[in-house]
Amino acid sequence: MEIKLAVRNFIEFMMNNGSIDNRHGGIDRALEGTRIHRKLQKQGGENYQAEAFFSHKEEIGKFTFLMEGRADGVIEEDGRVIIDEIKTTEIPLEILDENPLHFAQAMCYGYFYCTSNQCSEITIQLRYYHIYTHEIKTIQKHYPQEELQQFYLNLLHQYVKWAELQIDWTKIRNDSIKEITFPFENYRPGQRELAIATYKTITNKSKLYCQAPTGTGKTISTLFPTIKSLAEGEAEKFFYLTAKTITRQVAEETVQKMANLGLRLKTVTLTAKDKVCFLEERNCNPEICPYANGYYSRVNDAIFEMIQINDQFTRTEIEHYGKKYQLCPFELALDLSWWCDGIIGDYNYLFDPQVYLKRFFSDNGGAYVFLVDEAHNLVDRSREMFSATIHKSSFLLLKKQLGKRHKKLMDALNR
User: Fold this and answer.
1) What whole-number distance in Å separates Cα of residue 16 and Cα of residue 100?
2) Over 90: is that where the pLDDT of 78 sits?
């Protein structure tokens, strides 16, 4: 049985610990980090291979794990090979300690390289770039192929229980999907045609635009064939994306209607962070929020329980388990989504360049189906996503606070 995984997601899932912390990182830092990566990669010279793609298969018992990912860089010079991993930081470099998680991803790539190129040893290089001082701290470690192999296989053996859970669930899900029939006695006019067109669109990996009157039953006519396609191996996950809470609830109710007839399908509904936060005022600082503090040390145990007990994870379910395990409900829903067959949420999670679900789309993606409800709303929404607003009052207030002591800053603000 083959299990396909992205290296980054695998390492983060298996090795992540500690707390959610909004004091470092965020959207601006992520964009800045991408720019810095490109800058350093360009400086690598002719022996530097940027964004080197790796694909590796490993058999553990009844499973064949196909692992894929891209290393920031591979350097081949003077008979020596270096796997380069680049990280940006705000922490002063003199007090910065290496993060095992940062090394782990590069160690996997090092093992893959050794295996495919018959290397007996390799160098793993971790470069921390300080975003304010532009200084770089480089840490290098040399590993024999045997040590990298032991590290990687140890992680895979730990992952086997999750793989078994996934395989067992897929069989249960697919068997139920094959048995399920259309949940209404008769098709309304146009429903059967839409369902057939949806299924053909999925199998052909193409796009379908549908315009139909309210009351046609578009939700079930698109969800039903999409769910059928999961059991046929035509898709591995679907996203039902909407602009309104009420239409997300319609999707939840439609899945529940089929579940009442025997369907086994795991779905999760994503709710905006501000709406689902347990605090009166959101602050993802682990010193302030107990649900952020130690989050990554507890979340896997919560998910392991949740996916064995429940199928549909609505906002109510997510909040229940968030309080039970003292976990941020927003991040819990995101982490749970990896183990669900369907994800119901706002347009933003696919289309917004700043908040889209990078865990699914940043690498090679997957066999995903996107059902976009009331797509005409995307015109206005996309204008919001790709627009920014600047208020003159903010600049005037800052100038007033600065006074005349900071001439360079004042000149910049005036410009």
Assistant:
1) 9
2) no
3-state SS string over the chain? Answer: CEEEEEHHHHHHHHHCCCCCCCCCCCHHHHHHHHHHHHHHHHCCCCCEEEEEEEEEEEEECCEEEEEEEEEEEEEEECCEEEEEEEEEECCCHHHCCCCHHHHHHHHHHHHHHHHHHCCCEEEEEEEEEECCCCCEEEEEEEEEHHHHHHHHHHHHHHHHHHHHHHHHHHHHHHHHHHHCCCCCCCCCCCHHHHHHHHHHHHHCCCCCCCCCCCCCCHHHHHHHHHHHHHHCCCCCEEEEEECCHHHHHHHHHHHHHHHCCCCCCCEEECCCHHHHCCCCCCCCCCCCCCCCCCHHHHHHHHHHHHHHHCCEECHHHHHHHHHHHCCCHHHHHHHHHCCCCEEEEECHHHHCCCCCCHHHHCCCCCCEEEEECCHHHHHHHHHHHCCCCCCHHHHHHHHHHHCCCCHHHHHHHHC
pLDDT, one tens digit per residue, over 135-190 is: 999 999 999 999 999 999 999 999 999 999 999 999 999 999 999 999 888 888 88
pLDDT score recorded for residue 376: 92
Q: What domains does the chain contain, in order, with CATH numbers?
A: 2-159 (3.90.320.10), 162-385 (3.40.50.300)
In terms of DSSP bridges, do strands 63-77 and 2-6 run parallel, antiparallel, or are they unpaired? Answer: parallel
C-alpha radius of gyration, the chain, whole number:
24
Nearest to 238, CA basis, from 261, 273, 264, 266: 266
Report pLDDT for 24.
58
Strand-by-strand arrangement of the 237-242 sheet:
312-313, 267-269, 342-346, 237-242, 368-372
- The pLDDT tens digits for 97-117 are 878 888 999 999 999 999 999
